């Protein structure tokens, strides 16, 4: 077997060297041929596609957080090579969503051993951008933008910007065209969800399933300020979910038109400002290495 590691060295402020040493030792012990690609922020797309073409891996391990998972999935979109996740980012929201083993070396063992493949949906935005976790317009996108400009990483840094942005929350107006209907909504955040929870653990889309061929448009009308601050600092269970102030629309295609250009983030990456957004599902676009137990938990 040939295994490619796609590593984001700075994700979550987590040092990847100890894991990589252990991973290399494991691969060497079992005669697994491996290669390591580390992102630098410069021509990463070209670099990873080149090594995939030259190395021809049987499996790929994405080592980092949600952004690294998305980056790896996009690189493999046309190849059908299966990928697994090693959770070494800030919050590892998608890894949690997919019931990946939280211990990185155990997650690697599952990738090496498992022939169980799940067909994970991918969301395509404006014909050129992608998401497999959660994208949004509104307060969280502003937080992500500020976080990206800070050289520090981790949940403490994220929480700092969460608190700052709460003080200047702006009401968003959006027209949503989906399922043959057009509706107008207002709120503090409009989310494009392929999964259920943010990396903080806050549930936003309890009806979601990342393998059902649909995504959800979630409009958050308002949230208590104190609850938002707490959500940025700690993990919450389903009880935090405020059904009265959240509206959900499930679909496989949608058009969103905002009152003015709004900042969009997808899976923790700031994309830019848009007044109009087109969204569609790529059903089963990612071949995800999983386990039978994990897959059964995902589709519940």
UniProtKB/TrEMBL annotation:
SMART domains: DAGKc (SM00046)
Coiled coil: none
PROSITE patterns: DAGK
Cited Gene3D superfamilies: 2.60.200.40, Probable inorganic polyphosphate/atp-NAD kinase, domain 1
MF annotations from Gene Ontology: kinase activity
Pfam families noted in UniProt: DAGK_cat, YegS_C
Transmembrane regions: none
Alphabetical list of InterPro entries matching this protein: ATP-NAD_kinase_N, Diacylglycerol_kinase_cat_dom, Lipid_Phosphate_FormReg, NAD/diacylglycerol_kinase_sf, YegS/DAGK_C
Keyword terms of this UniProt record: ATP-binding, Kinase, Nucleotide-binding, Transferase
Residue intervals of the DAGKc domain: 1-129
Stated name of the protein: Lipid kinase
Highest classification ranks of the organism: Bacteria, Pseudomonadati, Bacteroidota, Flavobacteriia, Flavobacteriales
């Amino acid at each position: 077997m040939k295994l490619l590691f796609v590593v984001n060295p700075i994700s979550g402020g987590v040092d990847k060297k100890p894991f990589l040493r252990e991973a290399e030792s494991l691969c060497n012990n079992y005669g697994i041929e491996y290669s390591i690609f580390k992102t630098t922020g410069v021509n990463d797309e070209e670099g990873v596609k080149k090594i995939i073409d030259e190395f021809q891996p049987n499996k790929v391990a994405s080592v980092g957080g949600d952004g690294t998972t998305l980056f790896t999935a996009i690189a493999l979109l046309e190849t059908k090579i299966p990928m697994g996740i090693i959770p070494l980012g800030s919050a590892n929201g998608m890894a949690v969503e997919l019931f990946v083993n939280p211990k990185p070396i155990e997650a690697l063992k599952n990738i090496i051993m498992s022939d169980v493949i799940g067909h994970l949906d991918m969301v395509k935005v404006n014909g050129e951008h992608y998401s497999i976790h959660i994208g949004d317009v509104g307060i969280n996108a502003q937080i992500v933008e500020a976080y990206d400009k800070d050289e520090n990483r981790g949940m403490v840094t994220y929480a700092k910007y969460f608190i700052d942005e709460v003080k200047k929350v702006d009401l968003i107006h959006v027209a949503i065209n989906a399922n043959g209907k057009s509706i107008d909504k207002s709120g503090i955040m409009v989310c494009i969800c392929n999964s259920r929870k943010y990396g903080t653990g806050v549930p936003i889309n309890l009806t979601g399933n990342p393998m059902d061929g649909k995504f959800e448009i979630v409009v958050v009308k308002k949230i208590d300020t104190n609850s938002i601050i707490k959500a940025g600092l700690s993990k919450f269970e389903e009880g935090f979910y405020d059904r009265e102030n959240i509206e959900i629309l499930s679909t496989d295609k949608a058009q969103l038109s905002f009152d003015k250009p709004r900042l969009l983030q997808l899976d923790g990456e700031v994309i830019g400002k848009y007044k109009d957004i087109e969204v569609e599902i790529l059903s089963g676009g990612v071949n995800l290495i999983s386990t039978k137990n994990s897959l059964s938990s995902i589709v519940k």
